[in-house]
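fyi for ur records
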Amino acid sequence: MAGKQTIVVIGATGAQGGGVVDGLLKANKFIVKGEHLRQSGVPHTLLLTCFFFENFLKQPYLKYLDGSYGYMCNFKPDTAMPAHAVGDIGVTAAVIFSNPSKYVGKTVTVACERFKLPDALKIMSEVTGKRFNVDGPDLP
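which gave:
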């Protein structure tokens, strides 16, 4: 595809493995723009991202009187979340750009593994010696 350009559109899937994208697709404005891109004939690939492992480093934890920390979440803690490192986005995009004809018109999801929040917080507790707990609203 020498001389041709490819557009790579990057978006988040959300903890539900598609919740954010599903919401965007229901918004008429996004559908119109997405359809316009598809109908334009412009080569493109959708690159869907998810939860970043780095989110654990930047999360504002609640510190409790007993010395433990609370991780606030707005989803069911037992949800198996797809996740990856921020750097995986660039690596994946580089693969797409190096072989665009293989990925044109496709949706590529970036995810290294799925994990449940309590399992991740258990590992954080073991590594740091601090106690981490899930905190947040009770969700149906």
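Residues 40 and 66 are 59 Å apart (CA to CA). thats all i got for now
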